[in-house]
Write a structure and sequence with these properties.
heterodimer, A: 339 residues, alpha+beta, Immunoglobulin-like, Cytochrome Bc1 Complex, Chain D, domain 2, five-stranded mixed beta sheet, three-stranded mixed beta sheet, 17% strand, elongated, B: 632 residues, mainly alpha, Cytochrome C Oxidase, Chain A, 66% helix, disordered C terminus
């Protein structure tokens, strides 16, 4: 029986495996990382990618070589050599992967506890997910917004929850995601290191509007953040020009997340803008048109699926049974003021 | 008309409709007695669906023999439905494992095509950013149905292979419980109908995982989905009882566990998961339905429940479930590889026991689907280690296959090509697994297209490619005819290229932050081109399956007559005539050797009992290379 040398596929494994591992270690396979904790995650990712690349080369080299060297020649009807197994070999490819797994597992454990370790002088931000928008609260400043603004190099402790169904808080550039679950408060910590604009994307299927459940995230300098805080604190006070009812409506539409999908300045978004909406003739998806009056607004908030404006998706959650009559009045009153 | 009524399927559908009507009437009467409005879609349709399913089974004749026994009558030995033409048996409650195996396999393929069409809808919508063809609700329903119908298809495909092959490979006359076997198949069609009925009641936007609280509110279609899965689970559990009993109690004399064909080990290991795990998904779905219908707040925090509890119960089955799919598939690879390599399976015992190892460890890893729900990090760490442990027995299989090929005489017929396809895709699926096992990395990749790419590779490598290899390989056994080798190869190459393009696009977009389960994506992410490539790949896969369907149908009608042992296999099933008629092994053969002794001079696997005739036994006792010429 002829013994076949493993020399060629072994050489091939290293010729292929080492460049592949180096390539996977260095290649920018993920979007840029914007938080300190992400450095460790990216390190783990690259490590696993490099190992996986080498294993890939190992298998492909041996299988590829076999397919060429051990193909049946035409006319050859004999069987191959009856090798039934080799215990030392089986033990080797049981134990070596086991050792690699323990190594990666220890590193993974260390990174996991490291990124979740509480830090001194953290700023707490409370996040609430609901169909299909996000609300952010800064307890230290008494601010509630639909846009997440964070000072760079400031450790943040996010306390996340949801009011209706499960959502998931994820900014890809912040790496880790954490589910927001009704009845639970989950905690995740990030220290932003890179000034810029990002998008928060809900990562847990939450219904028809899941794909559009986004929020703007800005990482800004410390001074810019304080400026923003001051601005927001001013903005939270009811404006003088609004009647008390309309002012209440404005506050509600912010808290309930209406403004995540409906703009008040005429710019396009997931839902129709509220600017100039009242009194307008809206074309509907079924080809008819409707006059936007109080009755229409009332139906559209309580049962949004009944009359869909042309060009928009039926994704708004129904507010029937979730809004008191007074609150509904207030929101409609506020929409009326947006001429 | 009489012919039509002789078809169990037709009787079942008619009875099912009558049963549904009775269910509607019954529920409305009870509701009136409670002083409530008689009609409310959710409760009325739920009770009606349960009535309809039971009536369907009664109409098919699933309970007939048991009713006779209960009444003290003789039911006769199965199989005993022979009136009318042969094809009628395939539409009836028939207890012959070969009929049931074909029924399962065809149903599996039909469901696979239906679920494939759902995938085409999604790929069409994703080919370009923006919403062009479907609404988000329709997209979500297509997505959920694609998932659950494919899962159903795979479960039925596994059962199809196992039913057809187990008695033939073990030397048994039939399965251990033939009536139970037929029942377990016939539960599946009404379950599949219920799944598709969800579309008529508003669809379901939860995906196949059906997580509450989202699953606990909204369209009635979700109830049909939960109920359909519940019945499918019954089918799976009953099937497993048969696989385990047949394997343990009905092996031919001399066939110790370590002399069984390796495919049987895969089915045996998977059957333990089916038998002991399926209850959990059934329970979790039933609890959501009770929450919807009766206001029980199992998962509702306002009533003291917890949404996370559902995920624990659900994944306790639904993770091991993937091993139900892949263990028999990997068994097919281990089974066919020696035949096409003409060498013994390397490390038989290691490969056999690695299946049991995977089945055991598989029950300890469920929470890796929950690394982002905020479990304590101590728990996350535990599940990280157990999950990575799965790589060890899986690696044993992989390395053993490589060693099996080493030094062999590899013959590239269509089934072998599909084994290689399984190799490539399972390798990609396997190597992307550790990323998802390591908690911090998973917290980035969780619920992205990277995960979608990972499990499609494991499913194609662990089930779809091996399943297709198995269909090509045993097609001559089942039909007595050969398929077209040329079309088989075209099918393979189109499918491999299409699939790699499609999942390649999934890996890449996933790494860059493409979330799963979204009808539309942000054009600023720059995914349009790569998604278009993925969509073209997806359509290519479907197109290749059309070629497969054409090949199968044409070869069934007009294929060449198959030789007695076209692959020159040593396995038991090729000692019987193709197709096998009547009771599979009326007298069991005597096993005297090992199944994979290719290349061993004068090796004997089996001696046929005297009643079987001496001409058959001579075939196995002769060295393989001498009989080979005769078969070509």
């Amino acid at each position: 029986m002829k013994r076949h040398s493993v020399l060629i596929p072994t050489v091939l494994t290293f010729l292929l495996g080492i460049p592949l591992a180096v390539l996977l270690w260095k290649a920018p396979l993920l979007p840029p990382n914007a938080v300190r904790e992400g450095d460790l995650v990216d390190f783990l990712f690259r490590l696993i990618a490099a190992i996986a690349g080498f294993v890939f080369a190992l298998i492909v080299s041996f299988v590829g070589y076999s397919l060429i060297a051990f193909r049946r020649r035409p006319g050859d009807t004999s069987d191959g050599p009856p090798m039934h197994g080799n215990v030392p070999l089986e033990v080797t490819w049981t134990v070596v992967p086991l050792l690699v797994i323990f190594g990666v597992g220890f590193l993974g454990t260390w990174v996991l506890f490291e990124i979740d370790r509480p830090k001194p002088n953290e700023m707490t931000v409370r996040v609430t997910g609901f169909q299909f928008a996000w609300l952010f609260e800064y307890p230290a400043y008494g601010i509630r917004t639909n846009e997440l603004v964070l000072p760079v190099e400031q450790p943040i402790k996010f306390e996340v929850t949801a009011t209706d169904v499960i959502h998931s808080f994820w900014v890809p550039e912040f790496r880790m995601k954490i589910d927001t679950i009704p009845g639970r408060i989950n905690v995740k910590r990030y220290t932003p290191t890179r000034i810029g604009e990002y998008t928060l994307r809900c990562a847990e299927l939450c219904g028809a509007g899941h794909y559009a459940m986004l929020a703007r995230v800005r990482v800004v300098s410390g001074s810019e953040f304080l400026q923003w805080v001051a601005q927001q604190s001013g903005a939270q006070a009811p404006e003088e020009t609004l009647s008390p009812l309309a002012a209440r409506g404005k506050e509600l539409s912010d808290q309930l997340g209406c403004l995540a999908c409906h703009t008040t300045d005429g710019s396009p978004s997931v839902g129709p803008t509220w600017k100039g909406l009242f009194g307008k003739e809206e074309p509907l998806a079924d080809g008819t048109t409707v006059l936007v009056d109080e009755a229409y607004l009332r139906t559209s908030i309580l049962r949004p699926g009944e009359q869909i404006v042309a060009g928009y998706q039926n994704i708004m959650p129904a507010y029937e049974g979730r809004l008191s009559d007074e609150d509904l009045e207030a929101i409609i009153e506020y929409i009326k003021t947006l001429k | 008309m009489r012919l039509l009524w002789s078809l169990g399927l037709i009787r079942g559908l008619v009875w099912g409709i009558v049963g549904t009507a009775i269910g509607i009437g019954f529920t409305m009467l009870v509701r009136m007695a409670l002083g409530k409005p008689a009609w409310e879609t959710a409760p009325v349709t739920f009770v009606a669906a349960v009535f309809g399913t039971l009536a369907f089974l009664a109409g098919v004749g699933a309970f007939a023999d048991w009713w006779r026994w209960a009444s003290g009558e003789e039911a006769g030995d199965p199989p005993h439905h022979h009136e009318g033409p042969e094809w009628v048996r395939y539409f009836n409650f028939d207890t012959d494992h070969k009929i049931i195996g074909v029924q399962y396999t065809i149903t599996s393929l039909v469901l696979m095509f239906a679920a494939g069409i759902m995938a085409l809808i999604m790929r069409l919508e994703l080919a370009q950013s923006g919403l062009q063809f479907v609404t988000p609700e329709q997209f979500n329903s297509a997505m959920g149905l694609h998932g659950i119908v494919m899962i159903g298809s795979i479960l039925l495909g596994v059962a199809g292979m196992a039913n057809y092959l187990l008695p033939l490979m073990l030397g048994a006359p039939d399965m251990a419980f033939p009536r139970l076997n037929a029942l377990s198949f016939w539960v599946a069609p009404p379950a599949a109908i219920l799944l598709f009925l969800s579309l008529a009641f508003g669809g379901f936007d939860t995906g196949w995982t059906g997580y509450p609280p989202l699953g606990a509110v909204g369209a009635t279609g979700k109830q049909f989905f939960y109920l359909g899965v519940f019945f499918l689970g019954f089918s799976s559990i009953l099937g497993a009882i048969n696989f385990i009993t047949t394997t343990l109690k009905m092996r031919a004399p001399g066939m110790s566990m370590f002399r069984m064909p390796i495919f049987v080990w895969g089915v045996f290991a998977a059957a333990w998961i089916q038998l002991t795990g399926t209850q959990f998904i059934g329970t979790s779905f039933l609890m959501v339905v009770l929450e919807r219908l009766l206001g029980m707040g199992f998962f509702d925090p306002e009533k003291g429940g917890d949404p996370v509890l559902f995920q624990h119960i659900f994944w306790f089955y639904s993770h091991p479930a993937v091993y139900i799919f892949v263990l028999p598939g990997l068994g097919v690879i281990s089974e066919l590889l020696p035949v096409f390599v003409r060498k013994p399976l390397f490390g038989y015992k290691w490969v056999a026991l690695s299946s049991m190892g995977i089945a055991t460890v598989g029950f300890l890893v469920w929470a890796h689907h929950m690394f982002t729900v905020g479990l304590p990090n101590e728990a996350n760490t535990f599940f990280m280690f157990t999950t990575m442990l799965v790589a060890v027995p899986t690696g044993v299989k992989f390395f053993s296959w490589v060693a099996t090929m080493w030094g062999g005489k590899i013959e590239f017929r269509t089934p072998m090509l599909f084994l290689l396809g399984a190799f490539v895709t399972f390798l990609l699926g396997g190597l992307t697994g550790p990323f998802l096992a390591v908690v911090p990395v998973d917290q980035y990749l969780h619920d992205t297209y990277f995960v979608v790419g990972h499990f499609h590779n494991t499913m194609f490598g662990g089930f779809v490619f091996p399943f297709l290899a198995a269909i090509y390989y045993w097609f001559p056994k089942v039909t007595g005819r050969m398929y077209s080798e040329r079309l088989g190869k075209v099918h393979f190459w189109l499918m491999l290229v299409g699939f790699v393009a499609q999942t390649g696009s999934m890996f890449q977009t996933g790494l860059f932050g493409m979330r799963r389960r979204i009808a539309d994506y942000d054009p600023s992410l720059g995914f349009d081109t790569i998604h278009l490539i993925g969509s073209i790949g997806g359509y290519l896969v479907f197109f290749s399956m059309l070629i497969f369907a054409y090949n199968m149908i044409r070869s069934l009608v007009a294929g060449e007559k198959a030789p007695a042992n076209p692959w020159n296999s040593r396995s038991l099933e090729w000692l019987l005539p193709s197709p096998v008629k009547g009771v599979s092994w009326p007298t069991p053969p005597v096993v005297v050797g090992h199944p994979y002794d290719y290349g061993v001079p004068n090796a004997t696997f089996v001696r046929l009992a005297p009643a079987g005739g001496s001409d058959r036994s001579s075939q196995t006792t002769t060295p393989a290379h001498e009989t080979k010429e005769a078969n070509r």
